[in-house]
Amino acid sequence: MKFSRRVKPEVDVNLTPLIDVVFLLLIFFMVSTTFTKDTQLNIDLPEASGADAVVADRQIEITVSRNGDYAINAVALVSNQIDTLKIAIEKVSGGDTTIPLVITADSAAQHQAVVTAMDAAGQLGFSKLRITTKNTSQDD
User: Fold this and answer.
1) In terms of Cα–Cα distance, which of 122, 138, 140 is closest to 51?
2) Which end of the chain has fewer beta carbons closer than 10 Å to its terminal beta carbon, N or C?
């Protein structure tokens, strides 16, 4: 029996292609990523300084109070639910959806209350909708 040691070939791993791939991935992710600074939103709200709108002979006015309560043509509603609002609008309009609808909301009213009023009008089919604003030239 002849025992001889076999010489194992030396294993050599070439890392150059691996490093190239890693650098390409790094460059790809750096280029495709957007770097934004999310510190604060700057919003400039528009001012209403246009001419006064022409008032129609017959219109429906929805008033939204600071607490989110509704009134239609100065008649307060018993509930601030959208179903109550829709029923009251239908009753006042008599089913005529061509009547202009005006939403007058308190400046401290929640946005949700105004959106609910707009949603109720939209569900009933009203397309002539205005929101009352204060003219900036009258502030002086």
Assistant:
1) 138
2) N
